[in-house]
Write a structure and sequence with these properties.
The chain has helices at about 5-25, 30-35, 45-50, 100-115, 140-145, 160-165, 175-180, 195-200, 210-220, 225-260, 275-285, 290-305, 355-365, 385, 390-400, 410-420, 425-440, 445-465, 490-500, 505-515, 520-535, 535-560, 565-585, 590-600, 620-625, 625-635, 640-645, 650-660, 665-685, and strands spanning about 40, 55, 150, 155-160, 310-315, 325-330, 340-350, 375-380, 405. It has about 700 residues and is an alpha/beta fold.
């Protein structure tokens, strides 16, 4: 709450301010103003709130209004009208602002701000008065500094309106040049960056006295920043938040009541996956509202306490083209259960590693979570995340040397395949042609129906000439072409397989568009797509990529499994490397036979195959799956106590502590660690439950 525990004083302070305004507006009686300003505030009265607030030593001031009789909202403060015609506009002749009574200064300032800078034009288009050197003030300078520059024809000097209104004289040389004495060194104006008019604005614009004076002008005219408005606003915000929390609880109870649903769950403990309808529905509503979500964030903070935690971060663009960063915390709660909690989502102006780190640290510090307690990091493979020197993981490792970065294995495999394909121009072109053909054929319902009709005719023809051609559930059914997703490399395999199965039907639809298309541009696009997919190079890459992706797809699906074991995942990565290398060495002849058979069936000309061919790049997978990270995961699996302590390995645990977490153990602790683990293993084996 923004009142910081002073709630008991706010109402009384409002009354005091109201009394002061009433005294200031009492027809200009200076004595009454002095009496109210000089009044003494009784601390006991401030606490009670309903007793006398102000006691004057000379005048009888009425006691404060009881709390129950006060208006719920303070009346709007209207500024007094000041006759601007009575104010001297010429900056060389006007009275200094500090010579006015203190109670009238703000109204005088408002009047001058409302009138704007005094910028007279030269009479009868004649130039202003010249100095002894023949130089003069130019009215064209008004356009360069329209908000503050003033000119006094009587003194032939320039002044600054905001500084006149808010800058106090300091006695330093030159501090009163634009406020009291005025500026008249016209010969210095044309010195470029050293122009006195520019120097007056300050070399450090946000902190210069001129900028501060301009900010004071804006604050004075902005009534929303006055103290009584801020106090009223903070009180309203707290009321709105309390009402929101109460309304959320009431709405949840009403909805469950009308739906005849149970309120409580069978297991409402923190580690439970289903804590009952009331709690789960409030958590759902909290995900759509920041104020309710704040309560959830405090609960997550209490779950983590002062323990270690793992941060998972990802950023993406939402529907409104705003870059958003999602933060998920993974930790072990006080009951020993591993938890993953969505913690916050932050709007990002840019996605540099330094900005991401700063925003993450702000979110963590806001909830009193120490960066030093980060024990691991999980991001995608983008350069701003993955970079070894300036990436986000490297910046956190500077403060937390043991916050090891672990990249999602499924995403690593995807990046390895994408990186390898981008190194070969023909593979890039292949996927462009594939996407183009699928988009053209599936762009309308009419073409989709033509594709299904052509496929049905193709299946009927094969059934008539081939007795072994099978039909039935899952075999040679009428389907549709599948598009490849940008974020799921596994979808490319489905797209390739669908085109192979419906190659004849796809070519038939493209020929129909070429011959019967209503628009020339559609015919041109279809003709280009037809020429691309009926080339031998396209057919060759089509079958090559299918065989490669059939090998990697098993690994990709296994790595995305929630129940996947770390050691098994390591084994799958190793076997996939072996399969790809084996396919590279021994898979040429079977692949070429399949391609020739497919080409002969569809009338595609086979070129001379005596030319050499450069293979793909298995090194991409090796670079993505680095040995040190894989070793960390393998050694960490020794701490798995499931399946009857099958993975428990004392040597691996000691190696893990010595190599990856040396600062967490002293030399003496490292010596005793092995014997302590052996005693632990012996004690566990003697228990009846084990």
């Amino acid at each position: 709450m923004a009142t910081f525990g002073f709630e008991d004083y706010i109402a009384s302070l409002k009354v005091y301010l109201t009394r002061y305004r009433e005294g200031s507006a009492s027809g200009g009686d200076r004595s009454s103003k002095r009496d109210i300003v000089g009044a003494q505030i009784d601390p006991n009265a401030l606490k009670r709130g309903s007793e006398n607030i102000v006691q004057s030593s000379t005048n009888n001031v009425e006691t404060s209004t009881p709390l129950e009789q006060r208006p719920s909202k303070l009346p709007r403060v209207e500024s007094k009208d000041v006759d601007t015609s009575s104010l001297v506009r010429d900056p060389g002749l006007r009275q200094q602002i500090w010579d006015y009574p203190v109670s009238e200064c703000d109204e005088i300032r408002r009047a001058y701000i409302k009138s704007g800078p005094y910028q007279p034009k030269a009479p009868n288009n004649q130039p202003f008065e010249t100095d002894k050197n023949g130089r003069r003030f130019l009215d064209s300078w008004y356009k360069l500094f329209p908000d503050w520059l003033e000119y006094s024809p009587t003194k032939n000097r320039a002044f600054c309106l905001p500084c006149f209104l808010f800058t106090k004289p300091t006695g330093r040389p030159g501090s009163s040049a634009f406020t009291i004495e005025g500026f008249s060194s016209w010969k210095k104006v044309n010195k470029g960056k050293n122009c006195p008019l520019l120097s007056h604005m300050g070399k450090d614009p946000p902190n210069s006295s001129h900028r501060v004076a301009i900010k004071c002008c804006c604050d004075l005219t902005n009534q929303a920043q006055h103290i009584e408005a801020i106090i009223e606003k903070q009180t309203s915000i707290q009321i709105a938040r309390n009402r929101l929390r109460l309304k959320t609880s009431i709405d949840v109870i009403k909805w469950l009541t009308f739906q005849a649903c149970a309120f409580r769950g069978r297991d409402e403990r923190h580690e439970s996956n289903n804590r009952g309808n009331v709690i789960e529905l409030i958590k759902l509503l909290a995900s759509y509202n920041e104020d309710v979500a704040a309560v959830i964030q405090r609960f997550i903070r209490e779950e983590i306490n002062d323990g270690k935690f793992f941060i998972l971060v990802d950023e993406s663009e939402d529907e409104s083209k705003r870059e958003q960063m999602a933060i998920v915390l993974r930790f072990v709660d006080k009951y020993g259960f591993i938890k993953e909690r969505f913690f916050d989502i932050v709007h990002m102006l840019d996605t540099t590693s330094a900005t991401l780190k700063e925003e993450i640290c702000i979110v963590l510090s806001r909830h009193n979570l120490s960066v030093q307690n980060i024990s691991g990091q999980g991001y995608d493979g983008a350069s701003n995340m993955y970079g070894e020197w300036t990436g986000l993981q490297a910046l956190f490792c500077v403060e937390c040397p043991f916050a090891y970065y672990v990249h999602c294995f499924a995403h690593r495999l995807q990046l390895a395949l994408v990186g390898a394909s981008k190194q070969v121009i023909s593979i890039n072109q292949f996927f462009s042609y594939l996407t183009q053909a699928i988009n053209i054929v599936g762009s309308s319902c009419k073409r989709h129906d033509q594709l299904r009709a052509a496929q049905a005719a193709d299946i009927a023809e094969k059934l008539a000439i081939d007795d072994e051609f099978e039909t039935g559930k899952g075999k040679n059914q009428i389907g549709t072409l599948k598009r490849a997703g940008d974020t799921r490399w596994g979808s490319h395999l489905s797209s390739i397989c669908s085109l192979i199965n419906m190659f004849s039907a796809t070519c038939a639809v493209l020929r129909n568009i070429i011959n019967d298309g209503s628009k020339s541009n559609q015919q041109a696009e279809a003709d280009g797509a037809y020429d691309s997919i009926t080339s031998f190079e396209f057919v060759f890459i089509l079958h090559l990529m299918r065989d490669i992706m059939e090998i990697t797809d098993d690994l990709c699906q296994a790595l995305q499994s929630k129940s996947q074991d770390i050691l098994n995942a390591m084994h799958l990565v190793s076997t996939t490397k072996i399969f790809i290398q084996k396919f590279r060495e021994d898979g040429w002849v079977p692949l070429l036979e399949k391609i020739k058979l497919f080409s002969n069936d569809h009338g595609i000309q086979i070129p001379d195959m005596s030319c050499p061919y450069k293979g793909g790049r298995v090194t991409r997978i090796k670079n993505r799956f680095k040995e040190d990270v894989m070793e960390l995961l393998v050694l960490s699996s020794a701490l798995d106590l499931g399946n009857g302590y099958r993975s428990f390995n004392i040597e691996d645990i000691c190696k893990l502590a010595d190599k990856f977490y040396p600062m967490d153990f002293s030399e003496q602790e490292k010596l005793h660690l092995k014997y302590q683990l052996e005693n632990y293993k012996l004690d566990i084996s003697t228990l009846l439950e084990f």
